[in-house]
Write a structure and sequence with these properties.
Length: 149
């Protein structure tokens, strides 16, 4: 039996950024690319992870609709399934910081866990203006393992 795509044990108090983060996770879990892209403001920035990494060698983030769509293709499209476990969530101003683990199930029965802090900032209409994910690439890579089919 498969685990639920999203396990949320954090605060559920209403907040626009928290709601946007939840919609984002739900769209990713369903692999609903167009729905996910529609959650972002046209001039949004995705930094996942923040700073230089193999996913963003310059560390400048992925900008605008085209950049964010390219980020999806590079990071989400090839994943078979995602599970999100959010243990805590702190909303303030126009942002929310969610603390948890994202598990990606990859082809070949491989799995990788990414623990981090995932920060969403929304604009006045509730669209995501910024998504910044604080996690360590090498730490996540160290969890890569084969799982029983």
């Amino acid at each position: 039996m498969t685990a639920p795509a999203i396990t949320w044990t954090a605060s559920t108090a209403e907040h626009p950024a928290r709601a946007a983060s939840q919609r984002s996770m739900e769209a990713v879990a369903r692999k609903a690319k167009d729905e996910w892209l529609a959650l972002f403001a046209p001039d949004a920035v995705v930094e996942d992870p923040v700073g230089p990494s193999p996913l963003d060698p310059e560390g400048a983030g992925h900008h605008g609709s085209d950049g964010i769509a390219a980020f999806w293709e590079a990071t989400v499209a090839g994943v078979e399934r995602f599970e999100f476990v959010i243990k805590d969530s702190f909303a303030a101003g126009d942002e929310v910081a969610n603390v948890g683990t994202i598990t990606a199930f990859l082809p070949g029965n491989m799995r990788i866990d990414t623990e981090g802090v995932f920060i969403y900032r929304v604009d006045s209409t509730g669209l995501i203006w910024s998504m910044r994910a604080y996690w360590e690439f090498d730490r996540a890579l160290a969890t890569l393992r084969k799982v029983e089919g």
